[in-house]
Amino acid sequence: MDKENTPDKLEGIIVPMVTPLLSNGELDKKGTERLIRHLTHGGVYGIFILGTTGEASSLKTALKKELIEITCKETQGQHLVLVGITHTAIDVSLKIAKIAKDNGAGAVVAAPPYYFYLDQDDLFKYYIKLADLVPLPLFLYNFPIMTKNTIEPETAQKLSRHPNIIGIKDSSGNGVYFQKLLAIKTEKPDFSVMIGPEEMLAQSVLSGGDGGVNGGANIFPSLYVRLFEAAMNRDIDLVNKIQPLILEISKNIYGCSPKTSSYLCGVKESLYYLGICEPHIAPPLQSVDAKAKETIVQNLEKIIFKIKSI
Amino acid sequence: MDKENTPDKLEGIIVPMVTPLLSNGELDKKGTERLIRHLTHGGVYGIFILGTTGEASSLKTALKKELIEITCKETQGQHLVLVGITHTAIDVSLKIAKIAKDNGAGAVVAAPPYYFYLDQDDLFKYYIKLADLVPLPLFLYNFPIMTKNTIEPETAQKLSRHPNIIGIKDSSGNGVYFQKLLAIKTEKPDFSVMIGPEEMLAQSVLSGGDGGVNGGANIFPSLYVRLFEAAMNRDIDLVNKIQPLILEISKNIYGCSPKTSSYLCGVKESLYYLGICEPHIAPPLQSVDAKAKETIVQNLEKIIFKIKSI
Amino acid sequence: MDKENTPDKLEGIIVPMVTPLLSNGELDKKGTERLIRHLTHGGVYGIFILGTTGEASSLKTALKKELIEITCKETQGQHLVLVGITHTAIDVSLKIAKIAKDNGAGAVVAAPPYYFYLDQDDLFKYYIKLADLVPLPLFLYNFPIMTKNTIEPETAQKLSRHPNIIGIKDSSGNGVYFQKLLAIKTEKPDFSVMIGPEEMLAQSVLSGGDGGVNGGANIFPSLYVRLFEAAMNRDIDLVNKIQPLILEISKNIYGCSPKTSSYLCGVKESLYYLGICEPHIAPPLQSVDAKAKETIVQNLEKIIFKIKSI
Amino acid sequence: MDKENTPDKLEGIIVPMVTPLLSNGELDKKGTERLIRHLTHGGVYGIFILGTTGEASSLKTALKKELIEITCKETQGQHLVLVGITHTAIDVSLKIAKIAKDNGAGAVVAAPPYYFYLDQDDLFKYYIKLADLVPLPLFLYNFPIMTKNTIEPETAQKLSRHPNIIGIKDSSGNGVYFQKLLAIKTEKPDFSVMIGPEEMLAQSVLSGGDGGVNGGANIFPSLYVRLFEAAMNRDIDLVNKIQPLILEISKNIYGCSPKTSSYLCGVKESLYYLGICEPHIAPPLQSVDAKAKETIVQNLEKIIFKIKSI
Question: In chain A, where are the structural domains located?
Fold first, then answer.
């Protein structure tokens, strides 16, 4: 297996990058390039494209291919690129994985298939098959509220013994579950355990976690990098200064609308306001209304002001 | 819009056909042809390929295309062919719909996108867009336990006013919901309301429903046709003779294993035993164990014996 | 066991009676008496007090005792009185059952305990113990959305063999489940299987069910009795005339508010408008707002007008 | 309001005490006394009786009264006693609260009513009413998997402004939710935010939480006190020594059976093995089987051995 673009252990902030889209549904290529530069200048460790925040499930293969190409080209091997291959059909996952490999990405990420309910034996066999077949290191992704299927800690532990499975991102929000994942590191210290919900980033790192895959890092990459480093350095004072801002982003940027797209529009409208990329989202999601967009911008300005004073 | 292969109103038994697969994951073409002949000889009204029972979410596009071609060719325009286009990405749904149209299918079927949570406004706009763009009449498909998203009765009623939306299949199992769907027919009598769970077939038709999309019709097409006709004719005695068999199929063929694949394997193992097609299923589902397969066959023999005596 | 006040088989409309309350939370005794007369004049088969609609979980024992006394006294042994004894603590259930027996009630009704999750073995042993200890025939009550615990059909079948368990009310809304309950009658024909959701009353009786325990019968007892009888007589034309009114009551009386109390306030506000009893509800539920109350009354008037023309 | 037995701020380990029961269902009084001495000698901050672990929902009032009396008497005012008053009927909650006050308890604890679904407005009004009426400081208790109703962070924040509401125990396991609760302390620093699941104790205290209400402290009170203190002192090395034991207790003591009662039997069988109290549990829960009990004891011995070496 070729691991030339993959480090021994993933650690730090990995951005689950949004997919910039034009109003006609095609990729906003210029916006994508600007966004990648914004992220790499912000000091993030890696970029995870085609995840939930990347709206992967809503996009056609051709667009995914374009996005992979641009991202790998822009990062120039200086930053780890992880490519989401989550799909209900394993053949489709393998197809995307091959494109990722051909373009120089460093790893692939797969949440469980999300149509049928699966038991742990189904899930285990599925992941072993996937890990055997993908041409890049595989990162697990637990997100039961979306996929209905949970990768139980015992299953994750068994999977961690596969040489091609390098870590897990947990977006369940379940603190007990996350502690059980951390216990895998006793047996396999270089198995990366990363947190999805940014509200839990600091506490997860203080508990021994390896970093975060946090949506807000699209907007404020360096803020999340600083919080990660503060937690790594056990600088509790700095953690306590940044954590309220993280919660404010969660509440006032992501929570501006009761619509399902509220989080996604919060990130994309912020990036649009910052002049980075277009704000459009793909169906079946529909954008929040004009009033919510206005509130997002107002709240964003307040947060930018506060960040400057840290 | 071309409706030459689509009748004014769907009514009767539509089989949600399994997808016969070889052990290498490719389509079992000979088995597929035999299965289609088995179904049409059984007197079913139509064949619905690439639904949940058809494992659509687990299959690659090339295989779906082959299946559409064979099914349309074998039915020779004598039976309605409905093609499932359910997918999280609308572009992929449209691609399958075009293949269906090009091969002479009569309608397409779409459950809600199943990754993101959607509100009713999202769902409504999604379906209107889909109905505008697909080149065949569109049948709705409600299956919230799989898709997480319910097409609420009010939304279904609004969608029923779109000229290209011709009916709905409900697999929720919710009897209150189904009664509310039936109320749509007051406004639009030719809107077909069909039941998924076969245990509810008789009662749904007695209540005014238009028929069933029932998995067991893969094995025993004429039994389900007879039950449908008995209910249409209000022949309660005959209904009461057949209904216990339907429940026995449900309990003793589909319920032989605690695995998620229990229903699907119940159908496929039965067809294999009957010499119709191969029994393999696609990942991520895993087959039931050998003991369960044996029990399926034993129970099947008993049911076949009982059917003969009706 | 004394079954003098209990018939061999329950059949027809049993009203899950609301508990009329004064604004100070005490029982509205005069209203209760008027309500009971309203129901018995409407021709219902029995009265079920202290169920979900009766807000049993929100009431103290002293008030429950008063209600049992008044109901048993007012019905004067002419109508079956069923008393809800559902509670998380079996000792409390038994205490209420004894009060019911002492006042001449005919049966008790128990949904599963609703704090802990229970497996089917727990549930079975619980119900056997309860059936052994209560001094009146026991009616099962399945309502998983409230209690979290489902009485699976296999468990209900095993319980139906206990001489003191006489039937089951199903409020799950699940049509497949209900068909499986009906199958119990093959083995034990006098086991009563009744439907909770009134939208399913007609179809359940057409399928072989024994009647309904329907909240709307508080307002319009004779309407539900007529629908039951029409379905029993297979008078499909009359069923088709009444069923739209049932759906209209469901939509326009129960659905006037997004609040949890919408159904309960729909019933109680209607009874208040009809001069039968006070409309107050017990905490933790809070009433719908004034606008919703107004809408209830307006919609009620329309429904009363339509009922007259059947 | 009398707060003589309640400190300004709750902080540390509060044991959610099991209720020792005899085989006839009555209180094991001698066992209760031994258990209380075991806990107070272990250095816990307080004792919370009649919670979920205390099987409050399964017990009759007379037994609850006995338990309150013994606990208040045994602790002799040296340890805070919190009494669970969670019930679906507010009158019943108030009755228990009065008994608690009369016996000298320091606070009462209430989870949301758990039969009806409640919106946040219902919940807010319910808790304000309860806080106004109870004669002791009120501690909130969030446990949505049991009660179905979540106290949303915004609601908890509003409730924290009531002078008689002193804190919240969160058993949701949701790490994002817990971080949002901690944010309440910015406005009201003496509002206690405590964690239920012991797997999260260390990380919650490292994040600024005030302590834990952890079931395992019934067995090993001093171990949980040491973990709490290590986290308070930011002694990460000691935390890292104890945390694996906490996870081992969770996995090997609580997880010995698939039955719902597995956690509760894990605690009670351990206490029985240690000679502290009888192991019986109240219906509707049923005990784990003999093999599971044996495994609990074997695993307990291993853990005791490991604890000695810390």
Answer: 12-250
